[in-house]
Recover the amino acids of this structure.
C-alpha cells in the first residue's frame, strides 16, 4: 500500500515537472533496496563528510566564478 501511494505521488510529479525523472528515481530507490551490500557504517562519518563536501562545492564555485 505504501509503495502504491509513493508511486502515485511520484507519477503526479510528472505533470508538474513535465518529465519522468521522479518515476525514474522511484525505480532507482526500489532497486537500491533489493541490493544487499555489507558495508560497515559509522554515523560519525556523516558528520565529517557533510561539511567537507559542502566546503568543496563552495570552493569549486569560488574558483570557477573568477
Amino acid at each position: 500500500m505504501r509503495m502504491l501511494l509513493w508511486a502515485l505521488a511520484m507519477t503526479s510529479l510528472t505533470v508538474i515537472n513535465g518529465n519522468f525523472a521522479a518515476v525514474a528515481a522511484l525505480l532507482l530507490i526500489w532497486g537500491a533496496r533489493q541490493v544487499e551490500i555489507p558495508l560497515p557504517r559509522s554515523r560519525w562519518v556523516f558528520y565529517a563528510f557533510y561539511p567537507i563536501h559542502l566546503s568543496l562545492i563552495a570552493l569549486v564555485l569560488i574558483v570557477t566564478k573568477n
Notes: Residues 30 and 43 are 23 Å apart (CA to CA). The mean pLDDT is 85. The radius of gyration is 18 Å.
